[in-house]
């Protein structure tokens, strides 16, 4: 006796999730000093000695020769907690940390 074909249950189509196929971008931060508010107290320098040093008058300057604190200097992800502490400790709110991580492309 011939077998009667059994109806096949459709298999679910594999779904593709674009986000699962993309690697999230690395968090990137920028540190700026608003020099119109800075009064050279030095707290930011104490928190970020690898990023900042002081000039002859005690004002913060970027350690990198190409760094410009008005435009912003990069902060390593490993230093972000110290950078946030420097931002909180500034009595004049002259330290500004900005998240510049590029958005996910989707």
TrEMBL record:
<protein>
    <submittedName>
        <fullName>Ferredoxin</fullName>
    </submittedName>
</protein>
<feature type="compositionally biased region" description="Pro residues">
    <location>
        <begin position="1"/>
        <end position="13"/>
    </location>
</feature>
<feature type="region of interest" description="Disordered">
    <location>
        <begin position="1"/>
        <end position="25"/>
    </location>
</feature>
<dbReference type="Pfam" id="PF13459">
    <property type="entry name" value="Fer4_15"/>
</dbReference>
């Amino acid at each position: 006796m011939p077998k009667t074909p059994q109806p096949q249950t459709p298999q679910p189509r594999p779904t593709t999730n674009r986000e699962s196929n993309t690697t999230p971008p690395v968090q990137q931060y920028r540190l700026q000093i608003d020099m119109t508010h800075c009064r050279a107290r030095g707290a930011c320098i104490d928190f970020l000695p690898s990023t900042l040093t002081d000039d002859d008058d005690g004002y913060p300057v970027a350690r990198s020769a190409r760094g410009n604190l008005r435009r912003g200097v990069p902060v390593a992800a490993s230093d972000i907690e110290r950078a946030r502490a420097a931002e909180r400790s500034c009595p004049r709110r002259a330290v500004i940390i900005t998240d510049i991580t590029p958005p996910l492309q989707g």
